[in-house]
Automatic annotation (TrEMBL):
It is an enzyme of class 2 (transferase). This is site-specific DNA-methyltransferase (adenine-specific). It comes from Pseudohoeflea coraliihabitans. The keyword Transcription regulation does not apply. Keywords: Methyltransferase, Transferase. PROSITE patterns: N6_MTASE. Residues 1-21 are annotated as: Disordered. The lineage of its organism: Bacteria, Pseudomonadati, Pseudomonadota, Alphaproteobacteria, Hyphomicrobiales. InterPro entries: DNA_methylase_N4/N6, DNA_methylase_N6_adenine_CS.
Amino acid sequence: MYSTERAGIAAKTKRGKKQQQPLAWREQLEAGQIKHWKKVREIGDEIRFHLSDRTTYIHDDAVHFLAELPPNSIHAIVTDPPYGLIEYEEKHLQKRKAGSGGVWRVPPSFDGSTRAPLPRFTVLSGDEINQLHTFFSAVAYGALRALVPGGHVFIASNPLLSSMCFHAFQEAGFEKRGEIIRQVQTLRGGYKPKGAEAEFPDVSVMPRSCWEPWGMFRKPLIGTVSENLKTWGTGGLRRATPDEPLRDLIPCYPTRGTERKIAPHPSLKPQRFMRQIVRAALPLGVGIVYDPFAGSGSTLAAAAAVGYHAIGTDRSLEYVEMARHAFAPLSALKV
């Protein structure tokens, strides 16, 4: 009788432990995040702004900051980097502000609306493309070191340069997990021959772009997805609902005028799109999202809107200041 009762009690205890295990590992993840966040947001000596208890923006170069981060210290990267390097050189930024073009194409007005300048990626030389590959390789190797196992990278590109950019991440050791296609029609592409538009009215030099590719990469797991999730909180993607996974085609209108007034950045992405990507990046909703090229702070605002911790860097003090003012209204937008 005693042995039977003892066996029954032992079985109940064992079942109880099994039922408590999910709470134990999740509590450990959440406690570790709070402790870790306090350290990560204070790394380095650069100027920084704590935009909220969960958000910090640092005036720093992406490659430099990635080198300062301890290994396995961030859980996801969501970023829209400069698609080229030369368009953000001072001489080209001045041409953009003056409306004189240069590497920036100034689109014509349409339906009474003045369009924002767009960079001409077709003007990049072979040397500039090689320079760009070297740049993305440095970012990719730094990201591989800083991310925890199973951490994802979502990186925006464009149809002209995506293969080069994405290959750099695969060379660094990331697993490519697919692409998120932002379906959006812009004024990019469809141009007539420059200086001969009237002479060749039926000719376009390239198609009108109606999509934007976001490369999706994952740092290799340690063990199974389940084991990685319990240890690091990463390895998968957060579903929109239990019955609805993240889809790789997301229809999305161009950024609204309301958002552009808040943050007049030339490459501002809409919160409606960014919040879907950022939310998916942390499968359990636990961890730190990092944007190496934070610009006007749209990734940071999206993270705040979904309740995540996030850190951003940018080497442009102008954009850091823009983000300081744009963060609160962007994160509060209804989408």
